Amino acid sequence: MRVSVVVATAGRAELTGLTVARLGRQTRIPDEIVVVGASSEDTHGIEAHGLPLRVDHARKGSCSQRNHALDLVEQTSDMIAIFDDDFVPAFDFIERAEALFAAHPEIVGVNGRLIADGAKGPGIGYDAACEMSEADRLRPDGDLAPLESLYGCNMVLRSSAIQGLRFDENLPLYGWQEDTDFTFRLKARGKLVKAPGLAGVHMGIKSGRTPGKKLGYSQIANPLYLLKKKTIPPKLAATLMVNNTLANFIKSFQPEPYIDRKGRLAGNMMALRDAALGKVDPRRVIDIG
User: Where does the Glycosyltransferase 2-like domain lie (predicted)?
Assistant: First the structure.
C-alpha cells in the first residue's frame, strides 16, 4: 500500500516538528507526510529529516486544513493516517495499520488504542508521551471492537472509501465534533473499528486551543447543527450538550487551572440563547471575542 500521514497544526510549530521527526522512526516509513498550517508561523522550522515531507497552508480551521491535506493525498494513497500534532504513535503503528487494512478490506476506518489521553487532564509533555509509548508492550493483534465513529486524534482511513467525503467546514476553527460527523458518514461505506494493536499517546496539549467562550458556543451549536444534518443520533447530541454544560456549570465554581470553565459556560449560554431565538450557527464562533 501507499501510505500517507496528514497533520493539521496551528500555533505549535516546535511540537509539530518533533512529531514529524519521530515519524522517521516508524518501522514502516510513510510514503508521504503532509503538514498543513494556517500560516507560515504554524510550520516555521519544521524540517524533513530525510522524510518525504510536504508543508502547505490553508484557511485556519481543523476541517479546512485537513480537507486541504486530503485533497493533496487522496488520489495517490491507499491508506491515510490523520494524526493530531500532539499524538505520539508507537513505532509500529503504521506497519500494523497497513497489515490490518490489507487483511480486512471491509474496514474503512480505524482508531488505535490510547495508552494515555492528556485531553482528559492537564496534558502530557512530549518526553513523557514518548516514554509511555516506548514502555507500552501490549500489542494484541485481534479483538477488533466495532465503533460508531472515530476519535480524531488518530484516524486511519482507507482512501478509496473517502472519495467525495470531506470534513464539514461549517464547523470552523477547532471544529468540535468534526471527527464524529465525518466518520458517522464514513460508516455508511464500511466498518469502523478500534484496533488495540495500534497504540499511541495523545498529549492533549492546551496551547493553540480554541478560547473557552468559543469552545463553549461550539459545544451547543455544533451538536444542534449535526442533529439537523442527521449525521449524529438525537441521544448523542443531547448527551454532548447536557454533559458539557453541566460540567462547565459545576466546575466553574472551582475550575481546573488548565480549563476556562467560566468562558465555556458563557459560550454555552450564548448558544442556548441563539437556539431559543432560532439563529444558532456554528460559524458564529469566528466573531465571538
Answer: 4-112
Domain's final residue, options 180, 202, 224: 202
pTM of the complete model beyond 0.85 = yes
Residue 220 lies in a domain: yes
CB atoms within 10 A of CB 275: 15
pLDDT digits (tens, 9 = 90+) for 139-158: 776 789 999 999 999 999 99
Task: Go through the chain and tell me how many residues it has.
Answer: 289
- Overall average pLDDT of the 185-206 stretch: 95
Question: Which of 162, 184, 202 is a domain's end point?
Answer: 202
Could you tell me the residue range of the domain that residue 216 belongs to?
212-287
CATH number at residue 166: 3.90.550.10
**What's the CA gap between 277 and 282, in Å, rounded?**
15
> What is the pLDDT of the chain when averaged over all its residues?
95
Where does 24-106 have alpha helices with state H?
40-43, 62-73, 93-103
Residue with cell 509509548: 133
207 part of a folded domain = no
